[in-house]
Every structure is written in structure tokens, then in C-alpha cells.
Request: fold
Amino acid sequence: MTSQATASTTSANGAQTSTANMIQLEGIEKVYRTDRIETVALSDINLSVRAGEFISIMGPSGSGKSTLLNVIGLLDVPTGGKVSVNSKPVTSYGDKHLARVRNEEIGFVFQTFHLINDLSVVDNVEIPLLYRKGLSGAERRKLALRALDRVGLHARVHHFPSQLSGGQQQRVAIARAIVGNPRILLADEPTGNLDSQMGDEIMGVLKGLNDDGATIVMVTHDPRQSEKTERIVRLFDGRQVS
Amino acid sequence: MLKNYLKIAFKVFLRRKFFTFISLFAISFTLVVLMVAVSFLDHVFGAQPPETKLDRTIGVFHLQMKSPDDNNTWSSPGGYKFFDRYARNLPGVEIMSLLTDTFDGGKVYSYLDGNKIESYLKHTDGEFWRIMEFTFLEGGPFTSDDEKNANFVAVINEATRKKFFDGQSALGRTLEVDGQRFRVVGVVANVPYLRTIPFADIWVPISTMKTQAYKNQLLGGFNALFLARSKADFPMIKEEFQSRLKQVEFDDPKEYNRMIGYAETLFEFMSRPLTNSRQEEPAKVGRALATIFIIMILFMLLPAINLVNINISRIMERASEIGVRKAFGASSWTLVGQFIVENVLLSLIGGAIGFVLSRFVLRAITESGFFPYADFQLNYRVFLYGLAVAVFFGLMSGVYPAWKMSRLHPADALKGVAR
Reply:
């Protein structure tokens, strides 16, 4: 078990980071059951991620990387174990409460972007803010434009996803992930659908967000990208091997 | 948030044009048929001039005479002799009127300047004009004295004035109908063909009939109308009418010795075929209304089921969007709300199209002349009910698949897994 630290440190770029655990998993199990088959996707995962840390999760296909990320992001419910996000024990939370934690604490970046093609770039970025109380339309628009500016897409705000390149779509997805200013950014193979140059650009954006204090957990197949993170967690057959 | 929902809804409607078309067609077509059917029923049975006192009016529209062995039955509108001798002075009746059945030999012909003119002729007494409230454009009705004295006077409708007098004033002028000449004492607004009791082109006194044979007939060609003092008197009138039937003296009791009939509202009379009620039993109004209601529900159920299927397909294919919204903070109820907004919007658009189409169809039917002098109006109250039902079905058809999808774990939804 990992104990929870409370001290603060200063990172290499000078940003203040807390050493408190932003994410803490204890004895996580995830088993998929059908009538005849029981598949163990995750087994006894114990993981602590400090605030401001940038870690990567690696492992072969089917090793449980994405499942682990989904459990961390409260997108999937573990069969056993405890999940804490920003020191909140969320395992027992109901649908509404989980939705609020996802909205306020976590941003997601997916391999296939998952942008809504019927909405413009800026409308896509506004989505997380729609579920946050007390924001006017003008405020939402202002925050969305600021997020797009941060990922260098201020000139494409009224385009639709289908009018953008893969790299640009992933930038939109990142803008959507950070628009609500979450403490945690979860990225599931964010460079998986991009060529190496665009992949590097996206990694640059993520690194910049980490430098600004975001805690990032990234699933990747690419050793070159994982080397850019502070720590690598390796999975094999649903077990944590390092 | 609503703006975002609406934006998404319109985009989805446009992206899935065929589904949208089918949905809108189902909603609007259902509403149009419902509106036309209701308008038709309202046109036939609703209180409107000249039948403004329908709530107090019942009548006898059909009678049967039975032979002693029940093997022979004579069915027909009632006869003048029967009504005159046995149906007068019923308790609770304020006014009684006798009138011929326009559709039972009422079609007559005139010749004017070599042209053949077809008209519907109705013979009535003077009381008829006290029960009915016609809109007189010229003059007034003929009276009971005119009927008593067999004065050859007539009230004509506007269309007849146009045919015979080129639309000019007809008051005091004469017209020849079926070989008889009548002096026009009044001109009324056209009465729709489907208002079967008052409808005619020309109304003349009963006593001007070509022969007086009608005075000796128990059956044949006449209806009786009773204006009750109040609706509460209907049961008493009906009961007394039944007892009067037992008093009938038949010309040849060996041939016919029993008279069967009912004092009833026009709706009761017209509902008999719907409920397969024989003449020997009272009309089953409750069953008729239930039948109409069930037909309407079944008619609306089919497009509703269709809508449910369409909505399930439409929502299932948006699993990924649901996953994204859940990942970024939408709760299950929020998503149900979004899909409800979409379905309500679709239903309202369908309702608006249905409203416009209903007006168009009703106007087309009115102008077709298929039902002479008909003026089919949109019944706004029924339209709102119909729209409410459409929105209700829209909600129901959207809530189930939306709720099913909203219960998905976001991870499954993002994978597009719709279980």
C-alpha cells in the first residue's frame, strides 16, 4: 500500500507540485464475466500517482492498459479494490457524484479523438463546461477559446472535426480535456493514430500542460513517447510488473 | 445547455434525413388523419347552425313493423300517421316537428331556360323552424298556418337562389319544383349535405305534397324531432315513446302487429351500424364511443411503435457521443434530458407540419364539392390533444432507448457497445 504524502516539492521547471497522491488505487481487480467465461482484466493493481506527475502505462495489447485508465478515469467500475481521486474515495459514489468528479477533476484524451462531428470545434471544446453549474454561455465560449488558443488552434474554432487533420483533431480533444481546468489528464494512446511528427507535437502539448501542474497518466505503446514521462508503469496480463 | 441540445438535435435530424423524414411523416400523417376524422365527426354531429340545440334534441329516424310470427319486417323512416297520432304531446317535449327524410325520395328536378336543375326538397311543418336556427339571408320561415292552409311557399338556400335567380333577391318570386310552383318567403345560408336532419335546398310545407296519402301511412318518409325542455327529460321521453309504440292500431294486425323504434339522438341512431345493434334494442352508445376510441388509439399506436424503433436505432448509433458526454461529466439523467429534448422537438416539428397539412387537406375536401356545402374546420382543441398525444409518444419512444443508453458504462459507450 502506498501511504499518502502531503509535502510539496518544486519541479525542474519551477512549477509548484504537491507530493500528495492525486490518484490512488488499492488492490484493483477487474473481471469480465459472461455465462461461461471469466476474464481477468486487472489483478491486484496498487498504484499511486502524485500531483503534477506525468506517468505512462505500457504493456502489450490485452494487458489491461486501457481498462486501468478507464478505472482511474471513473469510466469503468472495478470488480474489487478502492479508487481515490484527489483524496476522495470514489468507489462508493453514485452516477451523479461520479459524473461531477469526472467533470471537475478529470480530462480525457482518446486515441480516436471522440469528437462529435455534428458540432464545431469550439462547441466540442465547450462540452465539459455544459455540465458545470453557474457558467453563462459567454463564459463558456471565452474559456473554450482560451483552451483552443493554448493548443494553437485559435484559427480553427468554427471548423468541424472532419475539416481538420488528425493532429489538429487531437489538439481539439486536448483543448476539450483541459477546458474545465481539471487536475488530472488521462490520455489513452493520444499519439496512436498520428504520424511521428504529429505525435511529437501532441507530446509537446501534454508536456507543457504537465509543466503547468497537470497530473497526467498516459497509456502508450510507443517506448519513444513513454521515455518522455517521469515514470513508466508496466502491465502484463492484467498484472503490474513494474 | 438547451441551445447545445437543440443544435445537436438539428444536426442529427439533418444527418439522418431518412429517419427524420419517416419520423416526421409518421407524426404529421397521424395528426392529419386524426384531424380530418375529428373534423368530419364534428361536421356531422357537432352543434352548429342550424342545429344549435342538439343537446336538447332527440328524434325518431327509423321504425320497424313486425308480423305476428316475426317472419316479416318492414323497416323504413316513420310515417306521418304514426307520428301524428302516437308521438304528439310526449311529456318533457317543448316542441315536436315532423319533416321528410331528404335522402328518401327528396331529390327533385326543375327546368329553367332548358336547363335541368337538381335539388333536394324537404317537407316540414312550421315547428321545424322553431327547433332549427337557420341563418336567414332574406325573409323568414313559413309558419304553422302556411302548413295548415297548404300554402305553396318555400324557403330556399343560397345555392338555389343563385341557380334560379342568378343570386338576385328571391323574396316573393316563384320557382317551379317538381311540377309545383312555390313562392319564396325566405332564403337561408347553405346547410351542409352531411347535416342530414336539416339539409335540403328547398323547404316547403308538408301539406303541399302532391298527394295526401302520407296522412294514412304508419311507415314511410318522415322523421320526428323532439326538442326537450332539458336533456334530463330524455329518459322520460324515451320511456313514454316506448309505451306509445304499444298503443299503435295496425290496419291489418294479421300482417303487422308490432312497431319497434326508439327516440334517440342522431349519434345514437348513426352508431347502430358500428355496434351492430339491431333495431329491436337500444343503441349502444358507450360501445360505439369505445370502438371509435380504440380505433383511434390503434391508429396512433402503429406510428408510435414505428417511432420507438426509429428512436432506438437513432440513439444506439450515438453510443460514442453518449460515452463522450458521460466522460466529461454528463449524468445519466442529463443525457435522458437531452434525448427527451430532441424527441419533443421532433414531435413539435411533426405537429407543426401536421397542422399545416390538416388545414390544407380540410380546405381541399371542402373545396372539392364532394360533400355539398361542407365547410370542414380545423378543431384547435382536438389538434392540441393530438399534438399532446404525439409529444407523449415522442417522449415515450425516446425515454426508453435514452435511459437504456444512459445506463451504459462510459467505457462501453465509447467503444460503441450498445447492449
